[in-house]
Specification:
- This protein has 16 helices and 7 strands.
- The protein has 438 residues and is mainly α.
- Belongs to the cytochrome P450 family.
- GO terms for molecular function: heme binding; iron ion binding; monooxygenase activity; oxidoreductase activity, acting on paired donors, with incorporation or reduction of molecular oxygen.
Protein backbone atom coordinates (compact mmCIF):
# COMPACT_ATOMS: atom_id res chain seq x y z
CA UNK A 1 0.00 0.00 0.00
CA UNK A 2 2.86 2.37 0.77
CA UNK A 3 4.25 1.71 -2.72
CA UNK A 4 0.86 2.46 -4.31
CA UNK A 5 0.53 5.81 -2.55
CA UNK A 6 4.17 6.91 -2.65
CA UNK A 7 5.19 5.63 -6.09
CA UNK A 8 2.36 4.39 -8.34
CA UNK A 9 0.04 7.30 -7.48
CA UNK A 10 2.80 9.62 -6.23
CA UNK A 11 1.72 12.63 -8.32
CA UNK A 12 -1.90 12.40 -7.09
CA UNK A 13 -0.85 12.20 -3.41
CA UNK A 14 1.97 14.76 -3.54
CA UNK A 15 0.13 17.54 -1.70
CA UNK A 16 0.20 18.41 2.00
CA UNK A 17 -2.76 19.15 4.28
CA UNK A 18 -2.84 22.67 5.68
CA UNK A 19 -2.24 22.20 9.40
CA UNK A 20 -1.63 24.39 12.42
CA UNK A 21 1.97 23.12 12.50
CA UNK A 22 2.57 24.31 8.94
CA UNK A 23 0.90 27.65 9.62
CA UNK A 24 2.48 28.50 12.97
CA UNK A 25 5.86 26.73 12.95
CA UNK A 26 6.80 26.77 9.23
CA UNK A 27 6.23 30.42 8.25
CA UNK A 28 2.76 29.74 6.87
CA UNK A 29 3.84 26.62 4.94
CA UNK A 30 6.73 28.33 3.11
CA UNK A 31 9.26 25.65 4.09
CA UNK A 32 9.80 22.42 2.12
CA UNK A 33 8.02 20.02 4.48
CA UNK A 34 4.61 21.71 4.63
CA UNK A 35 4.45 23.76 1.42
CA UNK A 36 1.60 22.70 -0.89
CA UNK A 37 2.43 20.89 -4.11
CA UNK A 38 3.00 23.44 -6.86
CA UNK A 39 5.52 25.81 -8.45
CA UNK A 40 6.92 27.09 -5.11
CA UNK A 41 7.53 23.59 -3.73
CA UNK A 42 9.06 22.36 -7.02
CA UNK A 43 11.41 25.34 -7.01
CA UNK A 44 12.46 24.75 -3.37
CA UNK A 45 13.02 21.07 -4.06
CA UNK A 46 15.12 21.93 -7.12
CA UNK A 47 17.23 24.33 -5.02
CA UNK A 48 17.93 21.52 -2.55
CA UNK A 49 18.94 19.06 -5.25
CA UNK A 50 21.07 21.45 -7.34
CA UNK A 51 22.55 23.80 -4.73
CA UNK A 52 22.25 22.60 -1.15
CA UNK A 53 22.65 18.81 -1.25
CA UNK A 54 24.53 18.27 -4.49
CA UNK A 55 27.42 15.78 -4.34
CA UNK A 56 29.82 18.64 -5.06
CA UNK A 57 28.62 20.79 -2.15
CA UNK A 58 28.52 17.89 0.32
CA UNK A 59 32.05 16.91 -0.69
CA UNK A 60 33.29 20.51 -0.30
CA UNK A 61 31.98 20.55 3.29
CA UNK A 62 33.36 17.14 4.27
CA UNK A 63 36.09 18.76 6.40
CA UNK A 64 33.40 20.21 8.69
CA UNK A 65 31.92 16.78 9.36
CA UNK A 66 35.35 15.35 10.19
CA UNK A 67 36.31 18.29 12.44
CA UNK A 68 33.10 18.04 14.44
CA UNK A 69 33.55 14.27 14.72
CA UNK A 70 37.04 14.78 16.14
CA UNK A 71 35.59 17.28 18.63
CA UNK A 72 32.97 14.69 19.69
CA UNK A 73 35.63 12.00 20.22
CA UNK A 74 37.84 14.48 22.11
CA UNK A 75 35.01 15.33 24.53
CA UNK A 76 34.12 11.67 25.08
CA UNK A 77 37.81 10.81 25.60
CA UNK A 78 37.95 13.22 28.54
CA UNK A 79 35.00 11.48 30.19
CA UNK A 80 36.37 8.04 29.33
CA UNK A 81 39.80 8.75 30.74
CA UNK A 82 38.13 9.77 33.98
CA UNK A 83 36.06 6.57 34.00
CA UNK A 84 32.77 8.48 33.95
CA UNK A 85 29.48 7.30 32.50
CA UNK A 86 28.24 9.61 29.75
CA UNK A 87 24.77 10.65 28.65
CA UNK A 88 25.40 10.04 24.98
CA UNK A 89 22.52 12.16 23.68
CA UNK A 90 24.07 15.41 24.96
CA UNK A 91 27.36 14.71 23.17
CA UNK A 92 25.65 13.56 19.97
CA UNK A 93 23.33 16.56 19.78
CA UNK A 94 26.20 19.03 20.21
CA UNK A 95 28.18 17.27 17.45
CA UNK A 96 25.17 17.19 15.11
CA UNK A 97 24.38 20.84 15.81
CA UNK A 98 28.03 21.70 15.15
CA UNK A 99 27.96 19.94 11.77
CA UNK A 100 24.60 21.31 10.67
CA UNK A 101 25.06 24.87 11.92
CA UNK A 102 28.46 25.20 10.26
CA UNK A 103 27.28 23.68 6.97
CA UNK A 104 23.95 25.53 6.84
CA UNK A 105 24.56 28.73 8.82
CA UNK A 106 28.31 29.18 8.34
CA UNK A 107 29.35 29.06 11.99
CA UNK A 108 28.38 27.63 15.35
CA UNK A 109 25.43 29.65 16.57
CA UNK A 110 24.98 27.16 19.43
CA UNK A 111 27.78 27.40 22.00
CA UNK A 112 28.35 26.58 25.64
CA UNK A 113 28.60 30.05 27.13
CA UNK A 114 31.21 31.07 29.67
CA UNK A 115 31.39 33.81 32.26
CA UNK A 116 33.28 37.07 31.73
CA UNK A 117 33.60 39.58 28.92
CA UNK A 118 34.44 36.96 26.30
CA UNK A 119 31.45 34.91 27.36
CA UNK A 120 29.20 37.96 27.09
CA UNK A 121 30.44 38.59 23.53
CA UNK A 122 29.69 34.98 22.55
CA UNK A 123 26.27 35.12 24.21
CA UNK A 124 25.37 38.14 22.08
CA UNK A 125 25.63 36.13 18.86
CA UNK A 126 24.83 32.56 19.94
CA UNK A 127 22.13 30.51 21.62
CA UNK A 128 22.82 28.13 24.50
CA UNK A 129 22.65 24.39 23.75
CA UNK A 130 19.81 24.06 26.26
CA UNK A 131 17.71 26.76 24.55
CA UNK A 132 18.35 25.37 21.10
CA UNK A 133 17.68 21.76 22.06
CA UNK A 134 14.41 22.85 23.68
CA UNK A 135 13.39 24.61 20.47
CA UNK A 136 14.20 21.54 18.36
CA UNK A 137 12.44 19.11 20.68
CA UNK A 138 9.37 21.34 20.90
CA UNK A 139 9.26 21.69 17.10
CA UNK A 140 9.41 17.93 16.58
CA UNK A 141 6.74 17.23 19.20
CA UNK A 142 4.38 19.89 17.82
CA UNK A 143 4.85 18.79 14.20
CA UNK A 144 3.84 15.25 15.19
CA UNK A 145 0.78 15.92 17.37
CA UNK A 146 -2.82 15.31 16.31
CA UNK A 147 -4.28 18.77 16.76
CA UNK A 148 -8.08 18.60 17.06
CA UNK A 149 -8.55 21.84 15.09
CA UNK A 150 -6.83 20.29 12.04
CA UNK A 151 -9.59 17.69 11.84
CA UNK A 152 -12.58 19.64 13.20
CA UNK A 153 -11.98 23.19 11.89
CA UNK A 154 -14.80 24.87 13.77
CA UNK A 155 -13.09 23.89 17.06
CA UNK A 156 -9.72 25.32 15.96
CA UNK A 157 -10.14 28.73 17.62
CA UNK A 158 -10.58 27.08 21.05
CA UNK A 159 -7.07 25.50 20.93
CA UNK A 160 -8.40 22.79 23.24
CA UNK A 161 -5.03 21.04 23.67
CA UNK A 162 -2.93 24.21 23.94
CA UNK A 163 -0.80 23.18 20.95
CA UNK A 164 -1.27 26.40 18.97
CA UNK A 165 -0.15 28.50 21.94
CA UNK A 166 3.01 26.37 22.18
CA UNK A 167 3.56 26.60 18.41
CA UNK A 168 3.41 30.39 18.50
CA UNK A 169 5.86 30.50 21.41
CA UNK A 170 8.53 28.30 19.78
CA UNK A 171 8.05 30.11 16.46
CA UNK A 172 8.80 33.48 18.11
CA UNK A 173 12.10 32.13 19.47
CA UNK A 174 13.17 30.53 16.18
CA UNK A 175 12.02 33.61 14.25
CA UNK A 176 14.31 35.78 16.39
CA UNK A 177 17.22 33.33 16.03
CA UNK A 178 16.92 33.07 12.23
CA UNK A 179 16.50 36.84 11.84
CA UNK A 180 19.86 37.26 13.55
CA UNK A 181 21.44 34.64 11.26
CA UNK A 182 20.08 36.28 8.09
CA UNK A 183 21.06 39.78 9.25
CA UNK A 184 24.67 38.66 9.75
CA UNK A 185 24.75 37.01 6.32
CA UNK A 186 23.23 40.07 4.64
CA UNK A 187 25.82 42.31 6.31
CA UNK A 188 28.70 40.19 5.01
CA UNK A 189 27.23 40.24 1.50
CA UNK A 190 26.95 44.03 1.68
CA UNK A 191 30.52 44.49 2.89
CA UNK A 192 32.05 42.11 0.32
CA UNK A 193 30.03 43.49 -2.61
CA UNK A 194 30.97 42.02 -5.99
CA UNK A 195 33.65 39.84 -4.38
CA UNK A 196 31.07 37.91 -2.34
CA UNK A 197 31.33 34.12 -2.50
CA UNK A 198 28.74 31.83 -0.88
CA UNK A 199 30.30 29.91 2.02
CA UNK A 200 27.28 28.05 3.38
CA UNK A 201 23.72 27.07 2.56
CA UNK A 202 22.14 30.29 3.86
CA UNK A 203 24.46 32.27 1.58
CA UNK A 204 23.31 30.10 -1.33
CA UNK A 205 19.63 30.59 -0.44
CA UNK A 206 20.01 34.38 -0.17
CA UNK A 207 21.72 34.45 -3.57
CA UNK A 208 18.92 32.40 -5.08
CA UNK A 209 16.33 34.71 -3.51
CA UNK A 210 17.89 37.62 -5.46
CA UNK A 211 17.52 35.81 -8.79
CA UNK A 212 14.94 37.73 -10.88
CA UNK A 213 14.34 34.63 -13.06
CA UNK A 214 12.84 32.50 -10.28
CA UNK A 215 9.43 31.02 -11.10
CA UNK A 216 8.16 32.10 -7.67
CA UNK A 217 9.84 34.81 -5.62
CA UNK A 218 11.61 33.49 -2.52
CA UNK A 219 10.75 35.81 0.39
CA UNK A 220 12.74 36.33 3.59
CA UNK A 221 10.24 34.13 5.43
CA UNK A 222 10.71 31.49 2.73
CA UNK A 223 14.48 31.57 3.28
CA UNK A 224 13.88 31.19 7.03
CA UNK A 225 11.43 28.33 6.51
CA UNK A 226 13.82 26.36 4.30
CA UNK A 227 16.74 27.11 6.65
CA UNK A 228 14.69 25.87 9.60
CA UNK A 229 14.00 22.61 7.74
CA UNK A 230 17.71 22.15 7.03
CA UNK A 231 18.76 22.75 10.65
CA UNK A 232 16.01 20.79 12.41
CA UNK A 233 15.97 17.92 9.91
CA UNK A 234 19.71 17.42 10.08
CA UNK A 235 20.35 17.83 13.78
CA UNK A 236 17.74 15.88 15.73
CA UNK A 237 17.25 12.98 13.32
CA UNK A 238 20.91 11.91 13.30
CA UNK A 239 21.12 12.20 17.11
CA UNK A 240 18.04 10.01 17.61
CA UNK A 241 19.21 7.34 15.15
CA UNK A 242 22.76 7.04 16.53
CA UNK A 243 21.51 6.91 20.14
CA UNK A 244 19.12 4.07 19.25
CA UNK A 245 21.90 2.24 17.37
CA UNK A 246 24.24 2.44 20.37
CA UNK A 247 21.40 1.30 22.65
CA UNK A 248 20.79 -1.78 20.52
CA UNK A 249 24.47 -2.80 20.28
CA UNK A 250 24.90 -2.37 24.05
CA UNK A 251 21.87 -4.60 24.50
CA UNK A 252 23.48 -7.15 22.14
CA UNK A 253 27.21 -7.54 23.06
CA UNK A 254 27.82 -10.09 20.26
CA UNK A 255 26.77 -7.48 17.67
CA UNK A 256 29.07 -4.90 19.29
CA UNK A 257 31.99 -7.36 19.13
CA UNK A 258 31.31 -8.18 15.47
CA UNK A 259 31.17 -4.48 14.51
CA UNK A 260 34.40 -3.76 16.38
CA UNK A 261 36.15 -6.67 14.64
CA UNK A 262 35.08 -5.33 11.22
CA UNK A 263 36.36 -1.85 12.06
CA UNK A 264 39.71 -3.20 13.29
CA UNK A 265 40.10 -5.23 10.09
CA UNK A 266 39.19 -2.40 7.70
CA UNK A 267 40.45 0.72 9.51
CA UNK A 268 42.99 -0.63 12.01
CA UNK A 269 43.84 1.03 15.31
CA UNK A 270 46.20 3.68 13.99
CA UNK A 271 43.63 6.20 12.70
CA UNK A 272 40.00 7.31 12.89
CA UNK A 273 37.23 6.29 10.49
CA UNK A 274 36.75 8.60 7.48
CA UNK A 275 33.87 8.84 5.02
CA UNK A 276 35.98 6.93 2.47
CA UNK A 277 35.89 3.90 4.80
CA UNK A 278 32.08 3.72 5.00
CA UNK A 279 31.50 1.71 1.77
CA UNK A 280 33.88 -0.94 3.12
CA UNK A 281 31.98 -1.42 6.41
CA UNK A 282 28.93 -3.53 5.45
CA UNK A 283 28.18 -4.70 9.00
CA UNK A 284 28.20 -1.19 10.47
CA UNK A 285 25.92 -0.18 7.58
CA UNK A 286 23.64 -3.12 8.43
CA UNK A 287 23.47 -1.94 12.07
CA UNK A 288 22.31 1.48 10.84
CA UNK A 289 19.63 -0.03 8.59
CA UNK A 290 18.37 -2.39 11.31
CA UNK A 291 18.16 0.60 13.67
CA UNK A 292 16.14 2.52 11.09
CA UNK A 293 13.82 -0.48 10.69
CA UNK A 294 13.08 -0.85 14.41
CA UNK A 295 13.36 2.80 15.39
CA UNK A 296 12.41 4.93 12.37
CA UNK A 297 13.13 8.58 13.09
CA UNK A 298 9.72 9.56 11.72
CA UNK A 299 7.25 6.77 12.72
CA UNK A 300 4.42 8.33 10.69
CA UNK A 301 5.63 9.99 7.50
CA UNK A 302 4.48 13.59 7.15
CA UNK A 303 0.88 13.31 5.85
CA UNK A 304 0.17 13.34 2.12
CA UNK A 305 -3.01 14.82 0.61
CA UNK A 306 -4.75 13.70 -2.58
CA UNK A 307 -5.00 16.41 -5.24
CA UNK A 308 -7.76 14.69 -7.20
CA UNK A 309 -10.08 11.68 -7.04
CA UNK A 310 -8.18 8.40 -7.37
CA UNK A 311 -8.71 4.66 -7.34
CA UNK A 312 -6.16 2.79 -5.22
CA UNK A 313 -6.23 -1.01 -4.76
CA UNK A 314 -9.93 -1.06 -5.59
CA UNK A 315 -10.80 1.79 -3.19
CA UNK A 316 -12.19 5.11 -4.39
CA UNK A 317 -10.21 7.87 -2.67
CA UNK A 318 -11.72 11.36 -3.08
CA UNK A 319 -9.65 14.51 -3.53
CA UNK A 320 -8.60 16.11 -0.26
CA UNK A 321 -8.01 12.78 1.56
CA UNK A 322 -5.09 12.55 3.98
CA UNK A 323 -2.76 9.57 3.78
CA UNK A 324 -0.59 8.54 6.73
CA UNK A 325 2.13 5.93 6.15
CA UNK A 326 3.35 4.17 9.30
CA UNK A 327 6.99 3.26 8.77
CA UNK A 328 7.05 1.98 12.36
CA UNK A 329 4.32 -0.59 11.60
CA UNK A 330 5.93 -1.67 8.30
CA UNK A 331 9.28 -2.15 10.07
CA UNK A 332 7.72 -4.50 12.64
CA UNK A 333 5.33 -6.37 10.33
CA UNK A 334 5.87 -10.16 10.69
CA UNK A 335 4.60 -10.70 7.13
CA UNK A 336 7.52 -8.60 5.87
CA UNK A 337 10.29 -9.40 8.38
CA UNK A 338 11.34 -12.62 10.14
CA UNK A 339 11.37 -12.14 13.94
CA UNK A 340 10.68 -8.39 13.58
CA UNK A 341 11.11 -7.70 17.32
CA UNK A 342 14.70 -9.01 17.26
CA UNK A 343 17.60 -6.68 16.44
CA UNK A 344 19.46 -8.65 13.74
CA UNK A 345 21.70 -6.57 11.46
CA UNK A 346 22.63 -9.74 9.55
CA UNK A 347 19.29 -9.53 7.73
CA UNK A 348 20.68 -6.56 5.76
CA UNK A 349 24.14 -7.94 4.93
CA UNK A 350 24.11 -8.64 1.20
CA UNK A 351 20.33 -8.09 1.04
CA UNK A 352 20.50 -5.21 -1.42
CA UNK A 353 17.80 -3.37 0.59
CA UNK A 354 18.53 0.35 0.74
CA UNK A 355 17.10 3.37 2.57
CA UNK A 356 16.78 5.65 -0.46
CA UNK A 357 13.05 5.21 -1.05
CA UNK A 358 13.13 2.35 -3.53
CA UNK A 359 12.56 -0.51 -1.07
CA UNK A 360 9.17 0.01 0.51
CA UNK A 361 9.75 -2.28 3.49
CA UNK A 362 12.30 0.29 4.75
CA UNK A 363 11.37 3.96 4.35
CA UNK A 364 13.21 6.03 6.99
CA UNK A 365 13.33 9.05 4.65
CA UNK A 366 10.03 8.44 2.85
CA UNK A 367 9.76 7.97 -0.90
CA UNK A 368 8.65 9.67 -4.08
CA UNK A 369 8.32 13.38 -4.70
CA UNK A 370 8.00 14.31 -1.02
CA UNK A 371 10.95 12.19 0.17
CA UNK A 372 13.33 13.97 2.55
CA UNK A 373 15.61 16.02 0.26
CA UNK A 374 18.51 15.94 2.72
CA UNK A 375 18.75 12.17 3.17
CA UNK A 376 22.24 12.02 1.61
CA UNK A 377 23.63 14.38 4.25
CA UNK A 378 21.75 12.58 7.02
CA UNK A 379 23.28 9.26 6.00
CA UNK A 380 26.80 10.70 5.98
CA UNK A 381 26.44 12.18 9.48
CA UNK A 382 24.85 9.02 10.94
CA UNK A 383 27.33 6.58 9.36
CA UNK A 384 30.40 8.62 10.30
CA UNK A 385 29.26 9.14 13.91
CA UNK A 386 28.24 5.52 14.48
CA UNK A 387 31.41 4.06 12.94
CA UNK A 388 33.70 6.35 14.94
CA UNK A 389 31.91 5.74 18.24
CA UNK A 390 32.18 1.98 17.77
CA UNK A 391 35.81 2.20 16.62
CA UNK A 392 37.25 4.74 19.06
CA UNK A 393 35.78 3.43 22.33
CA UNK A 394 34.90 0.33 24.30
CA UNK A 395 31.31 0.62 25.54
CA UNK A 396 29.47 -0.90 28.48
CA UNK A 397 26.34 -0.24 30.49
CA UNK A 398 26.62 1.29 33.94
CA UNK A 399 27.01 -0.94 37.00
CA UNK A 400 23.81 -2.66 37.97
CA UNK A 401 22.23 -2.52 34.49
CA UNK A 402 22.22 -5.84 32.66
CA UNK A 403 21.99 -5.86 28.86
CA UNK A 404 18.54 -7.45 28.98
CA UNK A 405 17.24 -4.82 31.40
CA UNK A 406 18.09 -1.71 29.37
CA UNK A 407 14.91 0.32 28.90
CA UNK A 408 13.90 0.74 25.23
CA UNK A 409 10.84 2.91 25.80
CA UNK A 410 10.28 5.62 23.21
CA UNK A 411 8.58 9.02 23.15
CA UNK A 412 6.16 9.61 20.28
CA UNK A 413 6.18 12.87 18.30
CA UNK A 414 7.25 13.67 14.76
CA UNK A 415 10.36 11.71 15.85
CA UNK A 416 10.69 8.87 18.39
CA UNK A 417 13.66 9.44 20.73
CA UNK A 418 14.44 7.25 23.71
CA UNK A 419 12.23 8.07 26.70
CA UNK A 420 15.24 7.67 29.04
CA UNK A 421 18.52 9.00 27.58
CA UNK A 422 21.19 6.31 27.17
CA UNK A 423 23.80 6.28 29.95
CA UNK A 424 26.94 4.29 29.15
CA UNK A 425 30.53 3.88 30.32
CA UNK A 426 33.06 4.76 27.65
CA UNK A 427 36.76 3.77 27.52
CA UNK A 428 39.26 4.82 24.81
CA UNK A 429 40.64 1.93 22.71
CA UNK A 430 42.94 3.83 20.30
CA UNK A 431 46.24 5.70 20.81
CA UNK A 432 45.79 8.93 22.82
CA UNK A 433 46.99 11.28 20.08
CA UNK A 434 43.98 10.39 17.92
CA UNK A 435 41.67 12.10 20.42
CA UNK A 436 43.45 15.44 20.22
CA UNK A 437 40.46 17.21 18.68
CA UNK A 438 40.20 19.29 15.48
Amino acid sequence: MAKLFLQTHDAVFADRPRTAAGKYTAYDCTDITWSPYGAYWRQARKMCAAELFSARRLESLEHIRHEEMRALLHDLHGDGAAGRAVQLRDHLSMAALGVISRMVLGKKYVEKQQAGAAGAAVAATTTTPEEFKWMLEELFVLNGVLNIGDFIPWLDWLDLQGYIRRMKKVNRLIHRFLDRVLDEHDERRRLEGDGFVARDMVDALLQLADDPNLDVQLTRNGVKGITQDLVTGGADTSTVTVEWAMSEVLKNPAILAKATAELDAVVGRGRLVTEDDIPHLPYVDAIMKETMRMHPVVPLLVPRLSREDASVAGYDVPAGTRVLVSTWAIGRDPSVWDSPEEFRPERFVGSGIDVKGRDFQLLPFGSGRRMCPGYSLGLKVIQLALANLLHAFSWSLTDGVAAGELSMEEVFGLTTPRKIPLLAVVKPRLPDHLYAGP
